[in-house]
Amino acid sequence: LADRQPAAMTDFFTETAGQILDAPVASVCVLDGRETDIVHLAARGTDVETLRATALDRSRLPGSLLLAREPVRGEDFLGLPIRTGSQLHGWMCFGRPPGSPRFDEEDERIALSLAARFAVVYENAMLFDTVQRHAARLQVATGERERSRTRLIESEQRFRQIAENIKEVFWLTDPSKNEMLYISPAYEEIWGRRADSLYASPLGWLEAIHPDDQARVREAMATRQRNGTYDEEYRIVRPDGAIRWVSDKAFPVADADGSIYRIAGVAEDITVRREGQATLAASLREKEALLREVHH
Predict the structure, then answer these.
(1) What is the DSSP string of the chain?
(2) What are the backbone angles phi and psi of residue 80, rounded to the nearest 5°?
(3) Per DSSP, what are the bridge partners of residue 267?
(4) Dist CA 55 CA 231 (whole Å)
(5) 63 in Cβ contact with 55 (< 8 Å)
């Protein structure tokens, strides 16, 4: 997902996800912020225009995935909505020909992880694309001033350093939090602790949370993860004493009977983003001041 162009990234993700899940047919639909129009629609092994006719039809698949709160799995079909917290981004689905191995819980787990990663990276790509287009307009307006051009390039470089070093932790637990079913290796980089320690002590990650954030996060974990509204930002204290900011989102996964049997989530180190927001805002103000100078 190195390509920061949202459309190209969606095409690449669709192809790659289909290969990972051994699904000859794969498609991803991304909606606008109002959840009413298609922004990007990518397909592997099927016709995009044919798919477009039902992409938003919430009365039948695949459009009905927009109403789902959990994956929809059949023998040769696996589909799920793409969400970050309460924000719906679209849907993704996969298909296998008759006679192929049927989709199982492991495929579902992989699809959930892929959807969570895609949602986070897509949001970052959209932000990056917006800033890129804004910066391009400023560069045109200040093209005659070398000093302004230099500062614009430096600003773009600072933003790249922020955007391209974001790494996420993906995790999967049982609803009671007695078992850590999966934790991605990025946990070790962000928390500074061994990921395999959470398989022995599933709540070990809480021990690193800053004392001022502990009560709030524990309460949110206990009351909001099961209903899909868990979306917390908190500080952690690494073993070396360093403090990092983390954005943590979670949503429930239900079985065929509608019972919640998994809690899936994604945690992201937003320390650089928090520091970068202040830097980027200052850079943009600086650019606007240069524009006014040029026009005068």
Answers:
(1) -----HHHHHHHHHHHHHHHTT-SEEEEEEE-TTSSSEEEEEEESS-HHHHHTTTT-TTSTTGGGGG-SS-EE-SSEEEEEEEETTEEEEEEEEE--TTSPPP-HHHHHHHHHHHHHHHHHHHHHHHHHHHHHHHHHHHHHTTT-HHHHHHHHHHHHHHHHHHTT--EEEEEE-TTSS-EEEE-THHHHHHSS-TTHHHH-TTGGGGGB-HHHHHHHHHHHHHHTTTT--EEEEEEE-TTS-EEEEEEEEEEEE-TTS-EEEEEEEEEE-HHHHHHHHHHHHHHHHHHHHHHHHH-
(2) -160, 155
(3) 169, 248
(4) 28
(5) yes
Q: Are 287 and 152 in contact (CB under 8 A)?
A: yes
Task: Band the pLDDT of 149: cuts 50, 70, 90.
Answer: low
273, 162 in Cβ contact below 8 A? yes
pTM of the model: 0.43
Torsion on CA atoms 216, 175, 122, 103, rounded to nearest 10: 180
pLDDT digits (tens, 9 = 90+) for 229-261: 999 999 999 999 999 999 999 999 998 888 999
| Average pLDDT in the chain | 84
End-to-end CA distance of the chain: 42
Mean pLDDT of 44-49: 91
What residues does 81 pair with on adjacent strands? 91
| CB 92, CB 79: distance < 8 Å | yes
Residue 128: its pLDDT value, please? Answer: 67
Quick one: pLDDT band at residue 2, thresholds 50, 70, 90?
very low
pLDDT confidence tier of residue 204, bands split at 50, 70 and 90 = very high
